[in-house]
Amino acid sequence: MSDHTGRDAVAAVWRIESARIVGALARYTGDFALAEDLAQEAFAEALVTWPRDGVPGNPAGWLLTVGRRRAIDAFRRRSARDERYAALAHDLGEGGLAAGNASADPVRAAEDVLWDPDRIDDDVLASMFLCCHPVLSREARVALTLRVVGGLTSDEIAKAFLIPTATVQARITRAKKTLAAARVPFAVPTAAERAERTGTVLSVVYLIFTEGSSATSGDDLIRLDLAGEARRLARVLTRLVPDEAEAFGLLALLELTAARFPSRTGPDGEPVLLEHQDRRRWDRSAIRRGRAALTRAQRIGRGLGAYGVQAAIAECHAVATSVDATNWERIVLLYEVLGRLAPSPVVDLNRAVAVSMAHGPAAALPIVDELTAAGTLSHSHLLPSVRGELLLRLGRTGQARAELERALRLCGNTREQTVLRRKLADLD
Questions:
Q1: Torsion sign, CA atoms 107, 111, 113, 115
Q2: pTM confidence score
Q3: In 3-state terms, what secondary structure has residue 200?
Q4: Which of 92, 136, 352, 379 is the most exposed place for a label (fewest CB within 10 A)?
Q5: How far apart are CA 408 and CA 410, in angstroms?
Q6: Short-list 40, 185, 63, CA closest to 112
Q7: Are 312 and 304 in contact (CB under 8 A)?
Q8: In the beta sheet, which residues pair with residue 265?
Q9: How confident is the model over 59-96, as pLDDT tens digits?
């Protein structure tokens, strides 16, 4: 195997399995910060071993066992011959899976991984609730969970929050130190504790999905690994908190949004705008699941929350046969409701797009101009992109060009850059 192929394999496994491996090691060691260090060491060893010896048949099991052995070494160095060390060593006798070697009992090694995607006491879920502990600030909870559980880089988190990367890194470092100082145990919390932290956990799942459905950087418009993990966690959350309407509202939103994934990109991965998408390719099963979850949210709550309202907007798109047949008036009203429930400049920008579809670009431009004057989205490519489109529809080509060029400079995703360059080329 080439070094390049081996490194690619390690990177792929890191993106898919790192959260579960950190969670499993935290459960074994009882030390969350140590678990993350052990996972990093295991992946570092994989970068050396896999290109040389080949990718093992069970990559996650290999990494987990290496991490567990590193934990034993760490406790041995500390001379910690206590019950925790004994429990770790009990099932790892001589001949177990070591770095670069096959397991003496492959079935047992596979069972040790214990990745049941629908387990309520899922290690990833436990990690999420740990990262969302009330001793942390809300900003720190979200940043830490996105980093540890979502596998996002500090740069990706910074773009999601529209803040500097250094700020994200500082938040994550402080959060880890705070959790360690508070001696927070690694476990799915009690029902009372879950109720206190569920809102933040939902927001983290939402942000992970948002990064997956519209990547802020890189060569792919959609990151199916992140989006898929967010949907899985949302399903687990609905079983863990079955009386929480917003959990079902979030699940509905993710399913209805993901239903459009098959038609959002072309054969070469290039973005396909909504008006050009082949709606026959939309995932009808996901639409049915999303609408069912939305109905459940409506039955549980006394009205839809912010995620439920966004799901209702997504449902308007899902049931429409074309852009022209979409109920844009209802979407405008739903965005007005969303603006009261969860006010943000992004919600206002989306409302402006809906207004432009319902009442024309001239009605929407003042909303966008207010956002421009406020400067809250000055580092996002979305605002100049929308403003450029509105100006183009109004025939103000010169101003539209300037806005689209600004959007291109701010955009970090190469696929979206292609769309913007195509629009600029069309102006020429």
A1: positive
A2: 0.72
A3: helix
A4: 379
A5: 5
A6: 63
A7: yes
A8: 271
A9: 888 988 899 888 887 777 665 445 555 555 555 543 34
